[in-house]
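Mesothelin-like protein
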Amino acid sequence: MQQFDLYLDISVLQYNLAAITEKVVDISLQTVILKKLNQIYPLGLDDGVLQLLGSTSRVATIDDIRKWSINRIDTLYSLLDPKNGPWDPDMSEALIMRYLSTGDHYLESAEINAIGSNICTLNISVLQTITAESLKSVLSPDLSSCSIEQKSVLYSIANSSFSNEHRNALTFYQLIIPYLGGAPLEDIQALSTQNISMDITTFISLNPAVLKMLNVSTVRGLIGVNIAELQLFENSSVVQSWVSQQNQSDLNTLNLGIINHNPCFGVDSQQFDGEIASGNVSAVLCNFSILDYACSSAVVLTSDYLATLLTCELSSSMTYSKEAWRRFLQNFAGPLDEALDRFSITNLSSIQSGPNILDAIGEVIISNFNTEQLRNVTFVSEWFQVRLRPFLSSVSTHFLSSLGSKNFNCKSYQVVVEALSSQGPLMNEDQKRLVFTSLIFPFLTRVDLPDPGCVSDTSGSNDWLEKNLRIFSVYASLDDLRILNANFSSVAVLGLLSSEQKAQFLLQADSGVLRNDSAFREVFSNIVTSLDLNQLGRFFTAFNETAIQMNLSIPTAISEIILNVTLLDLAPDFQNFSPQNFSMWFQTYLSSFLPAIGPNTLSVIPMSIGCNSYREIVKGLDNVYSHLTTTQSNIVFKYTLGYLQYQSSLSYYSSGSFFMFLNPFFLSFGFPDLKDFLSLIPAVRQAEILNSISVEELSEFLNRPNTVSDGAELCTLLNNYNMTNQYLAREPVLSSALASLTLACVWPQALRASSPADVEQWFNVRLVNYLPYLTSHLISSTQLSNASCLAYRKLSSSELHCMTSEFLENSENLQLFNNSGIAGIVLEYYTKELDTRNPDFSPLRLPAELLCHSPSSMFDALGDSDVQAILRSINNYCTGISPEVTAVLVAKFPNISASTIQSLGSQCVGLTVGQILSAPANAIISSLSTLSNIGGWDQGQVNALVQSIINAGFNISTASTLVSLGTLISGVPSATISNIPYSEILSLSQNPTFIDSILSAPTVLQETFVQKIISVDQPEVIAIVPGALVTYIPLVLLTSLSSENISLINTQSWSHEQVTEQSHIAGDILSVSVLQGFSCSAVQTLPLQKTKDLVKACRPRAGRDKVLLEEAQLVCMYNYVKDDPSVSFTDVPSDLLLYYSYENIQKENCQSYFTALGSADFSILSSVLDKQTILFDAAKDCLVKHTQ
């Protein structure tokens, strides 16, 4: 930074400000620039300087800004341009307030458009100064960062601005959308009656306090056809806050499944109490829900009525929370016992109780049982085997844990277990395991039991298991069973044990089977053959875990038995195994026994299994590599090589590095040598597969010990490898033997090098580390007879002339290049070589084609007369010249005159701001016809040129004067455009030359031009505004367009906000830009089929750009087509398919669905939907089904 400060001259900065600020982006260097500008302009920077600051303006302080003279709106536009980076809120406020305080400035439409989202940094009092008229021409303001108070002020003004549009609700709504975040309750309620179909994005941006006060009916009217979007955004905080204030019965009318979890929130029991009290209870009993009964404080039911009600409710699909059931049971505690008795004898096949009612019974009823009742077998039987039987299949952890702490005795406890066991077939595995872990084990291990473990009243292990654990015994470990019963015998109940328990049995020290190989083989073989694959997997999981817990080392002989017996048992299933199956067996189940591998162990594995499956086997063996002998490692390597050679077509390899592809097959077991490596590659795919390997991988491979033994094989590899040159240049020589063989392979190519650059590469780059390994054979006359001139000269270090400057300067040779068909890069190379070999060569000798591609250094020494001649040639023949050449030529003219400008022609674009400002104004005016046709000016240059001619009296007040400025139009102040008569401006709108020029001008100039055009004849706005400038037409002027204007509409390039006003016109005749404005509000008045046609018009079509749609539009479209079976996946926009419910797509159609979905943009999905994960999982499932 200090060097930059030291070398940045003030005069250089002053005259080249635009170019400098455009290039310098470092904040510390920008600070230096601003400091020097403050030195140049101690009273503050003026408009001309401020417009050229660019991103440098962002390092200014508030004190700096308060001194700036911001007199023109052009300056405000330039300073607030978002392309130059964001402003700190305090800074942007200070900037805007400085503009408003300088001169006669107000917050009118042009100012608001210039300010953009920075409007949210202004105080309320400032915002209140905005007039209703000013907002009419504002282009879709961004108020997302505004406070509620700011939004309220702006809404009030906007409401007044568009008051004339109230007669057309949809038009008014489209115009007021950006301001609705500040709308009061009564205005939102009014909108709900006007069929506007508000999208969900706008809905959740409303004032949260207002949202909470809206009822379901109002929201339904407000959102209209988009109501389903509430479900998509149900988890958003805004929607949840609203739901919490709504009655569940009202929410149910939306049919969206949105739940308010307070069971009695907003429940009005008055009507319910009245109907029940009318006397005819049986007729209306099942017409009301459990919630109605739970939330009523006046209803009394008999046990018969209560049993009937339970049957109705539990046979239906309705579910209720535990809180609702608890209130219900508390309300009807009196008749509940008899009601449950009656309920238990009904047909329970259709009963769906769920865990909530049982948890509530536990909390309301069982928790009140006293010790005497809990130890009364009859009482417990009555409750658990009769009254609670229908609910026991839905046990939860909470319910079981509560039972485990109750004061049952052994007899009453056994009654409970028997009751639960009777419902076991209706329980899932997790529930049955919970019975053991949450009830049985905690209860039987209680130290306060008179008979711990309930052992006394049993006759042996079998009887004890039957009485105390029933069907849940399989969820206990043998250690658990010994903890519960110290006298438990595994042998006595071996036939009753689960797979896991049998594994534990084998490892028990007291079983003795591990100490007897033949006994173990017999017992183990019987166990393995008696189990299916799932049971066998559970067996090995338990076996391994138990061995680890016991810190038990399995003898090698036992491991060999386990490995060989198991693999033989699995062999018939290997052909159907997936890679995941092999991974599980070789990396988990059998991992501990793989060190017992023998010569024939792997022979049971079919050679025809997939490569992914085989890799999983090798990975498992690699995990135990440190426990294998050298002989065992060689067995694995040879079998793997044999497996790969069996796959002769390489069908298992498709893409990516073949070297990296092979690594997972061998891992720690070595790698094939070059001969074996090449034997794995089919000849027809040799080049393709070799070129998949990176140079780093090739070096790693070739430098492995014993990889290369035959030079011919190495030459085959290097000759078919596309990156041999990079390999030679980048990879170090690690082996002299390999280096000698490598050099012998590539030496003929080096000798054939025919260009200086190629020779340079071969002898000074690629072979620099290999030349020490040259042999007499390689430099023999036989070898060198095929060498090129340049290669031989390089190798022999002789003075042999192959290509000299005389050759390059030869006139006939030069004329050969005066051919427009020669590539520019060739011409540039020739002139560069010419300049390098002879720096004094004059460009005057060059033909036109070479002159136009000459380096700037060729022009440095030109004299005045030569410069004139060169300029004439360049301007006559060159359509493009490098900026460096232009800068050199312009520097030859310290003083600028009309003749200088004439001589320079198009090279004037290289003039600095300093040169322009020092030039006589009359010279610029007289050269206007030349300057106005030059392209490539920067803003600083055109500002200086226009200011110069204005200061000299050039009056820009008519269409002809504006046209005469040509490419200099960018330097004209917007106020000048505003002051030109309307008739003159209107004529310019039809002038293609002027339109081309103004399109390169600043945004504020284009917008001012359009505002001037439409200031008189607004009804004909689309016809009179040039097509390239229609984006500056205010939205309010586009609401009256119809299909009569279709030819004009389709030819224009509209902004997204503008096309929203035209999406109602319809059909395939609309252009992409118009279709992008599809709006639910606009189409809801159209016939359904016409709306569907609009959706189909947005589908992907060949030869047409994609129709870009937002999430709210796509969700709306989905609601129109989701139930129409005639609409196929290719009939709709691909992005729309993101919102399809995958479970509703027929599985046989999943492939066509994902094919159509392939061109969708997943980034438009709201993160709250979590759709990406769902679709990815579904796609994998679809892929599996279609590859089986």
